[in-house]
Amino acid sequence: MAGFVTSSQNFPDRGAGRGVHWVAATVTDATLEAEVPSLIKGLPVHPMKQLREQISEAIILLVVIGMVFLGIVLLIPIIPFFMLHAHFSDKQFEKDYSQFLERMAGACFFCYNSRKSSVEFARDVIVPELATSVHIVFVNGKEVEFGADSKYISRMLYDIKERKGFPYLLKIEDGQVANMSVNNQFYSIMIGRKPIEPLLDRMNTFFASGALKQIGS
Fold first, then answer.
1. Under 8 Å CB-to-CB from 19, ≥6 apart: which residues?
2. Where does the pLDDT of residue 83 fall: very low under 50, low under 70, confident under 90, or very high at 90 and above?
3. Which residue spans traverse the membrane (predicted)?
4. For 117, what's the count of Cα atoms within 13 Å in the CB-facing half-sphere?
5. What's the rounded Cα separation, in Å, for the pair 101 and 173?
6. Across-strand partners of 171?
7. CA distances from 34 to 65, 102, 203, 212 (A)
């Protein structure tokens, strides 16, 4: 059932001799379910209930603040150790890098990257014409592919001041790294389908002894 159920009855009026029409209203369960929540919602919240809710929120906030503070307190003693570790790691790398330069004294490198427009020309046309003593370095995106010594080649490329684009030539001399970009001539030959001999001659000249003097002059 839903809504109100009404019934009408005539009761005798003893005083006036007339019948009185009586209307009785009956409230159903469905009506109670619909009306009671809205009535309760309108009632004022008990002060004690409000106080309990405020205390719960304050406790949660204090717990969160306490956890953050505890985390900071625990991290403070560890930070110096991280700084010391980073410092000694950098010093160790510099030492290892110097040893690498000494070990690879006189080594020559041809470095080309994974650029789609030129990777095949560098790999299939230029690389086969280089001397077997020249180390080939492929830079795939940001990853230098040169085995266990990749981090040192990456450092050599990172230290290049005049970045004119790949391919780069590198040569280790007297603990230093000479570098040169052949980007312009490389692409001019590739796009114009020109003979590669002038480029090879320039590269071989660089790889010859005295590359650092040649660049400085």
1. 10, 11, 12, 13
2. low
3. 58-83
4. 8
5. 8
6. 108, 178
7. 43, 89, 90, 92
Specify the DSSP element, H or E, that contains 190.
helix 183-192
**Residue 101 near residue 172, CB atoms below 8 Å:** yes
How distant, in Å, are the alpha carbons of 57, 61, 69, 76 from that of 64? Answer: 11, 5, 9, 19
- Residues 161-191, buried b or exposed e (16+ Cβ, 10 A)? eeeeebbbbbbbbeeebbbbbbeebbbebbe
> Is residue 10 classed exposed, middle or buried when 0-12, 13-18 and 19+ CB atoms within 10 A define those classes?
exposed
Nearest C-alpha neighbor of 180 from the set 155, 160, 194: 160
Q: Which two tokens stand for residue 43?
A: 């009632």
pLDDT in tens, 158-177: 999 999 999 999 999 999 99
Q: How far is the C-alpha of 70 from the C-alpha of 137, rounded, in Å?
A: 49
Residue 212 pLDDT class (50, 70, 90 cuts): low
Q: Are 25 and 6 in contact (CB under 8 A)?
A: yes
- Residue 197 has what pLDDT? 97
Burial class for 19, CB neighbours closer than 10 Å (0-12, 13-18, 19+)? exposed
Write down the pLDDT at residue 99: 97
Residue type, 187: Y
| Tokens of residue 113, six digits | 């990257």
